[in-house]
């Protein structure tokens, strides 16, 4: 793991003339498939939003979307995209382990590749997972897309690890399904084995 701070690391990647591999021109296909049917409305948080591809897709569906990312460069690009598209999505620079808890929690929270990135870089995974129940409204939905160790990249999160991160009584209806995670490398599409977790914030949880 690099000693480079996360904000500097990701700023450098987003400044590069070659797009980061996770910037694929839209939401991950596995998440795009749930946007019209699985999202709890109206308030949605996109954690680790990057340049806003998923957040803007949600905003186009009339949702009240906030995207957060540790990279000021990515957030600047996301704001530009939102303005050019005439979409009211909000984008803020923020560490995922220190997101302010709003008076009204979010009805849906999306994590498209953040949890596996925190785990890969040895970041404060526990702090992030402890914050998620406070950000999610009772009965709200959380979606986590992660690369699997089966992708052969030397890192990733398997189904058991993901389930263990969302225990009762805080979470209910936890499911994990195998999916493909799309990346773009040197202009070519690359499909990696992945997992999609869905969980509901339990109203009975603390």
Overall shape: it is globular
Number of strands: 7
Gyration radius, in Å: 16 Å
Structure annotation, total helices: 7
**Largest beta sheet: what is the strand line-up?**
3-2-1-4-5-7-6
**Assembly annotation:** single chain
Largest sheet: 7 strands, mixed
At CATH level 2, the architecture is 3-Layer(aba) Sandwich
What is the residue-mean pLDDT, rounded to a whole number? 91
Q: Can you tell me the CATH topology?
A: Rossmann fold
Write down the domain tally.
1
Helical residues, percent: 25-40%
Instruction: Please identify the top-level CATH class.
Output: Alpha Beta
Set down the secondary structure blueprint:
Layout: H1 6-15, H2 29-32, E1 43-47, H3 53-60, E2 64-69, H4 72-85, E3 90-93, E4 106-112, H5 114-120, H6 125-135, E5 136-147, H7 159-164, E6 171-185, E7 188-201
Parallel strand pairs: 1-2, 1-4, 2-3, 4-5
Antiparallel strand pairs: 5-7, 6-7
């Amino acid at each position: 793991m690099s000693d480079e701070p996360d904000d500097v690391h990701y700023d450098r990647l987003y400044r590069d003339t070659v797009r980061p591999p996770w910037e694929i021109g839209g939401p991950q296909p596995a998440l795009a498939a749930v946007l019209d049917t699985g999202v709890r409305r109206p308030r949605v948080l996109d954690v680790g939003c990057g340049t806003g591809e998923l957040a803007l897709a949600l905003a186009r569906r009339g949702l009240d979307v906030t995207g957060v990312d540790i990279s000021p460069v990515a957030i600047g690009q996301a704001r530009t995209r939102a303005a050019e598209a005439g979409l009211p999505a909000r984008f803020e620079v923020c560490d995922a382990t220190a997101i302010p808890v709003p008076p009204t929690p979010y009805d849906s929270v999306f994590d498209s590749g953040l949890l596996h990135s925190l785990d890969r870089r040895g970041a404060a995974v526990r702090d992030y997972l402890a914050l998620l129940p406070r950000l999610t409204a009772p009965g709200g939905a959380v979606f986590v897309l992660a690369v699997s160790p089966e992708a052969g990249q030397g890192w990733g999160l398997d189904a058991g690890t993901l389930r263990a991160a969302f225990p009762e009584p805080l979470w209910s209806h936890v499911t994990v399904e195998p999916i493909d995670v799309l990346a773009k490398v040197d202009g070519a599409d690359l499909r990696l084995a992945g997992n999609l977790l869905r969980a509901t914030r339990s109203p009975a949880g603390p």
